[in-house]
Amino acid sequence: MRLLLVEDEPTLRTQLRTALQQAGYAVDEADNGRDAEHLGDTEPFDAVVLDLGLPIVDGLTVLQHWRSAGRTMPVLILTARDSWHEKVAGIDAGADDYLAKPFHMEELLARVRALIRRAQGLASPLLQCGALSLDTRSGRVTVGGRPVPLTSHEYRLLSYLMHRPGQVVSRTELTEHLYAQDFDRDSNTVEVFIARLRRKLPADAIETVRGLGYRLAHVA
Ligand code: CA
14, 43, 146, 219: which has the fewest C-beta neighbours closer than 10 Å? Predict the structure, then answer.
């Protein structure tokens, strides 16, 4: 999963980036509304964390622009403490959720998880595909109850597939959703991680759909 993080306060932005990366997300960052708007217009994000008080263009304007342009990615806004009118304006502008500053990082991570799974129509934070299960809260993956240790890249890839059960996902889509803009994307990167995942999961768990991409098979 790939997130856009928009926050102009450097210390908070660093804390957020670190926490989100540790939770397994690829993170692109912007520290002003103009760059945020451009990134949201040109890159596919699975969710956006958007501070409302931003230099150059404010967060509310950015959000209104995205929504009027038909962009539907889930957006969590960060509002000033006790500013109920900001929350109302943000939700009316198309925000999916809000969090008032200061907040606990665990709460932000839980809200981001919820936004991402709801965008895929999933009800539970525990994703299951036959014997294969992935707990988005703990980052734990098991097959038949047996833990499968994964690297962060392997986890991100599997999580993306498990959020889309039965869907064929192209290599391009995976590349765009698994790596931030500054990541050195080699065209073979996805295949390398698919191959590594296949060695750790039951045989045929990840199907290759010729010419189209990959699909998670039902693991017996
Ligand atoms: Ca701010």
Answer: 146
Q: List, for residues 173-220, the tens digit of each pLDDT value.
A: 999 999 998 777 776 888 999 999 999 998 889 999 998 999 998 777
Sequence-separated (6 or more) residues with CB below 8 Å from residue 210 = none
Query: Which segments of the chain does DSSP mark as H helices, in order?
Result: 10-22, 33-42, 59-68, 84-92, 105-119, 152-162, 171-178, 189-200
Segments in 57-104 forming alpha helices (H): 59-68, 84-92
Compute the distance from residue 189 Cα to the ligand 1 centre, in Å.
Answer: 36
CA of 125 to the centre of ligand 1 (A): 30
Q: Which residues pair with 141 in a beta bridge?
A: 134
pTM assigned to the model: 0.93
